[in-house]
């Protein structure tokens, strides 16, 4: 549990949070993670962290650190609360936690069709490494993913 001020705090996600996480996931993404995807991440021991405002779950990230590399698997802010600096705060907190854990590099993939997330990552110093063809499912087919990374 970590207080961030402004009634905001971070805590580990548990299976009791899955309904609230899915409710955000399904509003935020056209191709959301399933309950099973989330449960698997919890079971695999991925870092699954909730951003809370008082008692309300308003965002989360899911990541995995392998040796010195932290890999962001999901980051999401409740659509009702986007564009208030919360995504940036959560991304910073993820990098801080990863560095404390011993990671020296942060890596992520983002859909080519997601300019909001790309702008966030660029703002925080991520650089484009490569493009993965057909990496993501869409409602009608596939789309490319951009791989971005930075030192932390
Ligand atoms: C991407 C996401 C996490 C950003 O969270 P947020 O709280 O809305 O973002 P912030 O308010 O912290 O914005 C920080 C920066 O990101 C960029 N940004 C965020 N939303 C943006 C948008 N809609 N259009 C353009 N730039 C945007 C801007 O550079 C912004 O800095 P600025 O406010 O100085 O312009 C949020 O849009 C989200 O949850 N989207 C759905 C899930 C998703 O796409 N996750 C990423 C998967 S790779």
Describe this protein's structure.
The structure is a single chain. The protein has 152 residues and is an alpha+beta fold. The chain has one domain (2-151): Aminopeptidase, CATH 3.40.630. 30% of the residues lie in helices and 42% in strands. The protein has an eight-stranded mixed sheet with strand order 1-2-3-4-5-6-8-7, with helices on both faces. The longest helix has 15 residues, at 86-100. The radius of gyration is 15 Å and the shape is globular. The two termini are 22 Å apart. Bound molecules: coenzyme A. Residues 28-29, 75-77, 82-88, 110, 114-117, 119-120, 123 line the site of coenzyme A (COA).
Low-confidence stretches: none
First and last CA, distance: 22 Å
Ligands bound, unique: coenzyme A
Find the structural class using helix and strand composition.
Answer: alpha+beta
What is the count of β-strands? 8
> What is the element string, with H for helices and E for strands?
EEHHEEEHEHEE
Considering the protein shown, what is the CATH homologous superfamily? Answer: Gcn5-related N-acetyltransferase (GNAT)
Biggest sheet descriptor: 8 strands, mixed
Mean of the pLDDT scores? Answer: 97
Organism: Permianibacter aggregans
Catalytic activity: N-terminal L-alanyl-[ribosomal protein bS18] + acetyl-CoA = N-terminal N(alpha)-acetyl-L-alanyl-[ribosomal protein bS18] + CoA + H(+)
Keywords: Acyltransferase, Cytoplasm, Ribonucleoprotein, Ribosomal protein, Transferase
Main location: cytoplasm
